[in-house]
Amino acid sequence: MSDTLSKIEKRTAYTLVLPAVLLVFAIVLFPIFANIWISFKEIQLKDIRIPEPRAKKIVRSISGDESQLEIIYKLRNSSLINGIKDVEFKDKFPKNVLPTNLDSRCIFKSKKIICDFGDWDPKYKENFEIKIRNINGEKIEKTIIKSQKPILDGKAENPLLTTNFTFKNFKKVFYENNFIELLLTTFYFTFFGTVGAIIFGILAAQLVNQNFRGRTYMRGILLFPYVGPVVALAYTWTLLLDPNSGTLNALLVNFSIIETPINLLGQKYITMSILGFEFKLRLALTTVIFFEIWRYFPLAFLFILARLQAIPQTLYEAAEVDGASPIQKFIHITLPQITAIISILFMIRFIWNFNKFEDIFLLTGGASGTRTLPINVYQQGFAISDIGMGSAVSIVIVMLLLSFMVIYFRLIGKRANEV
Amino acid sequence: MSTLQGLNFTNLNVATVFLIGILLSLTFVLIGNKINHLIKIFLLSFIFSILYFYLNEASPYWYIFGVFLITLFFTINLKKYSMQSLKEDFISEKIIFDFITLFGIVFFAFVILFPFYIMLVTSFKTQIALLVNPLDFSLDFTKSLNELFKSYFVIFETYNFGRYILISSVVSIGTVIVTLLFAIPAAYAVARLNFFGKNFLSTSILIIYMFPAIVLVIPLYTVFSQLGLRNSIFGLLIVYTATTLPVAIYMLQGYFKSIPKEIEDAGIMDGQNWFGIILKIIIPLSLPAIASVALYVFMIAWNEFLFSLMFLDSPKSFTLSRAIQYLSGDAETPRQYLMAGSVIVTLPVLFVFIYFEKYLVSGLTAGSVKE
After folding, report:
1. What is the pLDDT of residue B3?
2. What part of A 53-112 touches B (C-beta under 8 Å)?
C-alpha cells in the first residue's frame, strides 16, 4: 500500500518538476555545454545559417515569337563555406507548354520539370537556361511563368554540427588576445567593485541603523540604483560625466578643483601625484568601477542592515554600562557580527561582478582600457563576428567561475563546520 | 537670464559655513529649553540659510531652499544635546558620530538621487538650454506644457515609444505569468514530495543561477538564429523565463516549507489531488511570497538588457531598454530625448518598487544571488 503511495508521489513529483527542469536545461545548461562544442570550431557569425540552394528566375521573351520564352534560373549556394548534397530542382509549367532544350540532368513529366543537380560546392553558381514553347503556337503569358516559383531541395550539413575541431581558438585566446591584460583588467574591476560596494554598504547600513526622521524612506531611496534599469542609469551617468556639457565637469571647473574638463569615460590613464609620487591611474576603468559601486552597494547595504537589526540591543546596553565609546562598540560588537554576511556577500558579488557585461558595455563599450572578459565575449562573437573565439572566451569564464565556486563552497562548508 | 537660474558662484566657503554651523549649534545648546523646540529649530535653520545666502549672493532660491531643508534635518537632532549632556563620557566622539551620521545620510541621499534628478530635469529641457548652462538644475514652469513635454511627444511620435512600452509590458508580464506557472508546481514538489534526485535538484538550482547570461549568449544566438526565434517576443519570453526560474523556485520552495503540513493533510483527506492542493491550499496561503516573486521577476524582465541587445535587431520588436540603446547609437540624437526615454523606462520600476517595497525587499534578500 505504502509502496504504491510513494510511487504515486514520485510520479506526481516528476510531472511537477519536469517542465521547469526541461526549460532550464534547454536554455541555461545546454548552452554552457554547447559553448564547449563551438569553442573548438572555426566558425564565423555568417556561417551559422544552414546552406540553402537558391534560384532566381528570369523570364525573357524571344523576339518575333510569342509562343516561345527563355527562362534563366540563376542558381547558387547560399553559403560561401559549405557544400550542399543532392540538390533537386522542380518547376511547373502551364498546359501545353514544353521545354525545347532539356538539359541532360533533367526530366520533363506531366507539366513538371525535375532536375537532379547533384552536389554543389561552396560558392557554387550556375545560370541554368531553358527554352519553352507552346505546342499549339499560342502566346505564353510571361507573368504566369514568372509567378511560378521553383522549388529547390538539398541536403546540407548544419555547420554547427560538423565534426571538424581545432585548438586554434584557445591558442588565439591565450596568445593573441592580450590575455594577461584582459585578465588583470577583469580582476581589477571585479575586486575593487566588490570591495567598494561592501564598504559603502557597511557605511550606509550603519547610517540607516541609527535613529533619525525619515529612516524608512532612506532605506527605499538607497535601493533606487539597484532596482533602476541599467540602460537608463548608465546613460544618465554618461551625460553627467560628459566632458563638454556634463554636470560633474562643469561643477568641478566652477569650483576650480580642476582647470579643464576631464573625459572620465574616454581617457585610459591619468597621471596623479600624491605626496610627490607620480603614478598612473586607469581613469576610465576607475569611473566604471565607481558606477558599479554606486549601482550595487544597495544590495550589500540591504543584507548588512538586516544583520545589524538582528544584533540584540542588550549587547550595546551592556557595553554602554561598561563605558565603551561608539568606536569601541563598532569594532567589538558590530564588526564581529557582520563578518559572516560580509564574506558571503564578497563571494557572491565577486562572482557577479566578474560576469558584469551591461554596465561596462553601456558606459564605454569596452574602450579606453575597460575591456573585461565578458566584454571580450561580445567583441569576439559579435563585433569581430568570430563566434568560435567568443565561445572560447566564454569557456575561460566558465572555468574561472567554477574554480571560484569550488573555493566558495569550501569556505562556506568550513564555516558551517565551525558553527 | 531669469529663466536660467544656474549656479554661478565659484567658492563653497566650506570653512565659513562650518564655523557658522558650530556657532549656531552652540547657541542652540545654550538656549536650552527656554524656547519651544520647534520654533527654535526653524529659527536657527532660517538664520543659517540667510547667512548662507549672504555668503553666496548669486545662489538661486531653489538652492537656498535646499540648504534650509538640510539645515533643518541637522538641527532636529540637536534636541538630544543640552549643557548637561556635554559633560557625559565620550561626548566629543558622540557628537562627531552624530554629525557624520547626518552628513552621511545627506551625502548618500544626494549621491543616489542626483543622477535620477538630472535624468528628469534633462528630459524637460531644450538642446540650447543644456548647452548654455550645464549647472542649471531648475525646471522652467513658465513654458507651456507642450514645450515642457516636447521630448516626450517627440519620442512617442517619431521614435514609436508607445510600441516599445507595449512590448516591454507584454514581455515582462508574460515572463511573470509563465515563470509562476512553471515555478509553483516545481517548488511545491521540491518542498513537499520525496523523489529521486531532489537534493541534487535543490543544490543545482543554487549553482545554476550563479551562471552568467554572457556565457549563454553565443550558443543561444546561433540556435535561435537557426530556429528563427530571434527578433521574436516569444524567444525573449522563453529566455527570460528560463533564467528567472531557478531563483523563483528557490524563493517559493523556502516559503512552501514554512506552511504547516497539517493543512495539506486535511486537503488530502477531502480527496484533493496535488492540483487541488496547490490551487486551493498552497497558493492562497503563500500569496505574499508569490507576490514578491512576481514583482522580483517583473523587475528583472523589465530591466533586462543583454538578451534584448543580442536577440532583437529589428525596431519592430524592440523592448524599451533596447530602444533607448538603439537611440543612443545615433550620435545625433539629442540627449533630452534619450533622457525622456530613460525616465519612461525607469518610472514604472520605481513606482512598483515604492508601492510594493515590503514585498520587493524580501524578494531581493531571498534572491540575493541573482541580479
Report:
1. 40
2. none
Count how many residues are written for chain B.
Answer: 371
| CB contact (8 A) between residue A348 and residue B193 | no
Q: Do A114 and A15 fall within a single domain? A: no
Of A16, A49, A222, the CB nearest to B185: A16
Q: How far apart, in whole angstroms, are the C-alpha atoms of residue B230 and residue A216? A: 43
Number of domains making up chain A: 3
List chain B domain ranges: 14-142, 155-366
Please state which CATH number belongs to domain B155-366: 1.10.3720.10
Question: Cβ distance B317 to B232 under 8 Å?
Answer: yes
Chain centroid to Cα B213, Å, comes to: 22
| Region B216-237 average pLDDT | 87
Instruction: Indicate whether B252 pLDDT > 80.
Output: yes
d(Cα B145, Cα B161) in Å, to the nearest integer? 20
What residue numbers bound the domain in which A26 lies? 2-39
Residue B371: predicted pLDDT:
41
Query: How confident is the model at residue A230, as a pLDDT?
Result: 93
CB contact under 8 A, A227 and B134: no
**Nearest residue on chain A to B99, alpha-carbon basis:** A207
Measured distance CA(B152)–CA(B145) in Å, rounded: 11
Do A363 and A296 reside in the same domain of the chain?
yes
Residues A419 and A349: their CA atoms lie apart, in Å, by 24
CA pair distance B55, A246, nearest whole angstrom = 26
- Find, among A189, A185, A11, A154, the residue nearest to A83 by Cα: A154
Report the distance separating Cα B302 and Cα B318, nearest Å: 12
Q: Which residue has the cell 542609469?
A: A233
Residue A210 belongs to domain with CATH number: 1.10.3720.10
- Same domain for A262 and A309, yes or no, is yes
Q: What is the pLDDT of residue A192?
A: 94
Q: Are residues A128 and A197 in the same domain?
A: no
How far is Cα B241 from Cα B254, in angstroms, rounded to an integer? 20
| pLDDT at residue B364 greater than cutoff 80 | no
Name chain A contacts of B89, Cβ cutoff 8 Å.
323, 325
Does residue A45 lie within any of the structural domains? Answer: no
CB contact under 8 A, B183 and A20: yes
Alpha-carbon gap, residue B204 to A215, rounded angstroms = 38
Q: Are residues A366 and A338 in the same domain?
A: yes
